[in-house]
Design a protein that fits this description.
10 strands; mainly beta; about 230 residues; eight-stranded antiparallel β-sheet; elongated; 1 helix
């Protein structure tokens, strides 16, 4: 009964966080093979596999090889109701004009179990790390540098003002997930809710830091394992 009450309270808190305030769009580096980098979807998926540890790597090229994204991760399960993980993602344009890197450590608490044989798990997790963004203004082109009848003039003034071309900020996320680990059954349900950039890192490229911050990115997952 106590575990069931804990489950209800946790779901209510996360649902309130998701629907509170104004929702806005945001794009982080991501992969269509999301199962290779599960911690980028929800830190509560850290260590959600059969085994003691898992190492993975992934690479993706987009838009005619003009944007490359690489990711590596490592996860470790323990017998102390905790799983640990690390993931690193780097996204860079082919001309080196823009680079995005983030790295996180994840801690997932797996001690909340319920059901007749305690085969149902409620996992709560935290994720802390850094987010680094930088660009080379000398490798970019701006509208004011295009001259009628001449074309692009690299010596022209961009008329753009940037506060910083590079910054590294502390970042954090959190998540909660449920999964059914009952043995010898044909289907197992799982689901979760997560929130990223809960520290709201400042956008380093604009002069008005008080108004320009990354929005919190919410993610909802659900599925059936067959």
């Amino acid at each position: 009964m106590k575990n069931l009450l804990t489950l209800k309270i946790c779901w209510m808190i996360l649902l309130a966080c998701v629907w509170w305030g104004t929702l806005s769009a945001q794009v982080d580096p991501h992969f269509s093979q999301y199962y290779i980098q599960p911690m980028t979807m929800n830190p509560a998926f850290t260590g959600a596999f059969d085994g003691d540890y898992r190492l993975s790597g992934i690479w993706r090229s987009q838009y005619g090889n003009t944007l490359n994204t690489r990711g590596i991760s490592a996860e470790k399960t323990t017998n102390k109701s905790a799983n640990l993980g690390f993931n690193l993602i780097n996204q860079v344009s082919s001309d080196g004009a823009y680079s995005f890197t983030n790295g996180y450590l994840s801690y997932a608490f797996t001690g909340v179990r319920f059901g007749r044989n305690e085969d149902h798990f409620l996992v709560m997790a935290m994720q802390v790390g850094f987010i680094s963004r930088k660009f080379d203004i000398n490798k970019m082109q701006f509208g004011s540098q295009w001259v009628s009848g001449v074309g692009f003039d690299p010596s022209g003034n961009s008329n753009e003002t940037f506060l910083k071309p590079q910054v590294t900020s502390f970042d954090a996320g959190a998540g909660i997930a449920y999964y059914d680990a009952t043995p010898n059954q044909t289907t197992s349900f799982f689901g979760g809710i997560s929130a990223f950039h809960i520290t709201r890192p400042v956008n380093p490229f604009l002069s008005d830091q008080t108004q320009s911050r990354l929005d919190i990115r919410y993610s909802v997952q659900a599925g059936v394992r067959i």
